Structures are given as structure tokens and as C-alpha cells.
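Record 1 of the preview.
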Amino acid sequence: MKAYLRQGGGSGKSSIATILTEKGWKIGSDDLLIVDNSGFAYSYPKKAQIYAYNLVGNKILKRKVYDSLPLQRKIIWKMREKILGNKQVRRRVSLGMVGDKIDYKPIKIKYVLDLRRTNQPESSVEKINAEDLAATHSHILNYEFRDYLNHRLYLETFTPDRNIVNSSFTQTRKVIEQALKNTEIYRINVPKKSTPKDMIKFIDSIIN
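->
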């Protein structure tokens, strides 16, 4: 795997991945990626959640996600976007719709790109290690699995062992640290108004 994009919603992962697949890259997942402690990534073919804001300035994604809708659903989409805003309108689509080229084989991770939206006027990059990445992004994993964790915590009130959830996160953090200890990891800070194409241009300057 040439690179692994990581961050929470709104950072630009889905938009960037769509454009990169048009350049010959393959997509492994949208929100979550399975990684083992030897540094190999495995596809997680969960449906991608594409929001209206993902389509802004991204003609490729707009054509696949919005233009393919029947007229009635387009009208509903636009009404919801106008009333609720572009962060509250989404469509769940298959990975094949986000990127035509999907990689289902285990692939060694070469780079990790940690994307962050900031208020700074220009993009910047800093190299970090696996421990930094695991420590600063444990809350993302916590958020993604919040429903499961709440259920486990409820069950644990009836069992003697109340540390199952905490131990699972500790173990996951250790796996991330072990898996990426020899991987090049870059924290990329991009201005909030940067377009996906702006970010790709900056990323290319780092890993090519």
C-alpha cells in the first residue's frame, strides 16, 4: 500500500481517495482499515458514507454519487441540504462507487498520512512516530465503536470484570504501534479551505 490516509470526518479522506483512484491508485476502505501487528493492511468493504460537503469541488465524486440519483431523490437531497446543511446530507454507497479499483489483498503499508484541517494559511507537514499517531487518534477509534462500547459497558455492570473495554483499547493501541513502527508517518496540516486537488498536490510533493 503506497499510503494510508487517516483522520476523522471532514478532513478530506474520501474526496482524496476518489481522485487518486482515477490516477491508478486502489482503495481499501473508507472509514476503517484492518491492520495487523506486522504492518499489513486488509480491506474493510463497509459502505462509504458520502456527505454533500464531499461533493464540493469534486466533479468525479459528484458524478458517481449525486448525478446517478433519480430525479426525486435529487430533489430531496437538495431540500435537505438547504434546510439542514451539507454536513447532514449523506448517501451510503459501495466502495466500488467511490473508487473503481478496490484492493482486497493484504498489502504492506509504506506511508501513513495523518490529515488535519487547520486555520493556518498554508499547508505544512511534520514527521511523527507510531506512538504519537496511536496516542493522538485513540479517540477516533473510540468514537467509531461507541455503540459497541456502550453495549459492552452495560453488560460489564453484571460481570466481575470491568476492564474488558479498556484492555481492548490498550491492546489495539499496541498493535498500531507495532504495525507502524517502521513506517513513514506524516502529519499533514491543511487550511480549512483547501480543495482535494490542493491536498493531493501537496501530498505528491511529500511521497513522490
